[in-house]
């Protein structure tokens, strides 16, 4: 057995970009041969994956899965929209969402879960896909919501296939009423959430610091009018109500009828559904939101390649 030195590990890491422990394991398996270690890592998909791990992955798909009063939404990222339109990537996103439906939204548990039919974990299947497709990929986030008794309904905007698209919304409705009618209402509310992007279900669910900040801003604006303090207080409360109508789901005007609030729409639907309806939660995932994308000058890149 050859002695594995730090210099050998460093050399292999430089050649492949793979992790230190993976390089050491490769050298042990290959009796200290750096060149054979490169091949070993490539066969495992580790070299190709590591080289791409630092690249920005802001494209991809949002995937949803739901059933039995429980729903999951997952964001799987890739580097280009071209890959997101690939059947293999779509199947990967769909299957990961289904696995998450079983194991939950914790990313560590999800990555460590078995990927069906492969003998690999989800993380290992991702590594294999990276090596095969040639782009960096990662599960960026996942979330789950439940309703008991009730349903979790979904809506996918810019869908490329059922349950796959660019904006994914889940809405949990608690009710003892008719499940099919409840699902139909839930989809309408999910469409509303996709369009209106509320911050919370109710006023009480809003971040108190956000309300305080808005109150300070509205108070300063009102005082600039020169009105007395008792009038200012009424002005602020009135403007706060308008603020709630903009950011609180139950207080927003329902986009489906553009007349009633979402709260009123629930009340009107209750009789037909056969029971009171309560929105107990929602999740709204927009593909790539919050990721800082690299801006590239294609003309400059071509010029640089010609010059160099």
Summarize the structure in short.
It is built from 13 helices and nine strands.
Please characterize this protein's 3D structure.
The structure is a single chain. The chain has 308 residues and is of the alpha+beta class. It is 50% helix and 19% strand.
Number of H/I helices: 13
Number of strands: 9
- What is the CA-CA span between the terminal residues? 44 Å
Round the Cα radius of gyration to an integer and report it.
Answer: 26 Å
> Residue-averaged pLDDT, rounded?
86
- The helix content is 40-55%
Q: Please write the CATH class name of the domain at 59-200 and 278-286.
A: Alpha Beta
The main sheet comes to:
4 strands, antiparallel
CATH superfamily of the domain at 59-200 and 278-286: Elongation factor Ts, dimerisation domain
Q: Using the alpha-carbon principal axes, give the shape.
A: elongated
Counting helices, strands and paired strands, the structural category is alpha+beta
Which consecutive residue ranges, at least 5 long each, have pLDDT under 50? none
Widest β-sheet, arrangement of strands: 5-2-1-7
